[in-house]
Amino acid sequence: MTDWLTPEQRSRNMASIRSKGNKTTEARFVDLLRTSQISGWRRHTKLLGKPDFVFKKERLAVFVDGCFWHGCPRCYRLPEDNRLYWRKKVKLNRLRDRRNARGLRQRGWKVVRFWEHALERETGRNRVLLRLRQAISTT
Question: How does DSSP assign 92-124, residue by residue?
């Protein structure tokens, strides 16, 4: 299927769509934090890169990346339509992620990233908890 908009129109259209966050993934992470009795975190902070969760006292920024939007090596499948657009979009998302993480680290923050799929199964959640607890204790 071909795109009926010009590249400029498509770009304007996509730029006008504002993310509201991946609510189901973030809700799973909140659930995990609460059931594990991990406290001290905040959401929606005005920190570089807009981390999904921030542990201010520990200076820890946590990102829970959607497998599609951030190009998970395990889960990502390039859409059939408009392949050039999606290839570029995901590549730029990943570059932005690295730039933001580097900026946070330069400001003295520790950065931890988790993939969306890691929250789907018990074994993945256990690994996430282990990494998160290690990050919290080493800050």
Answer: HHHHHHHHHHHHHHHTT-EEEEEEGGGGSSHHH
Q: What's 48's DSSP letter?
A: T
Residue (of 119, 136, 124) closest to 30 by Cα position:
119
Count up the domains in the chain and report the number: 1
Q: What is the pTM of this model?
A: 0.81
Q: Where are the beta strands (DSSP E) in 14-118?
A: 41-42, 53-55, 60-65, 110-115
Write out pLDDT tens, residues 66-93: 999 999 999 999 998 889 999 999 999 9
Q: What CATH code is carried by the domain that includes residue 72?
A: 3.40.960.10
| Amino acid residing at 127 | R
Domain encompassing residue 123:
21-137
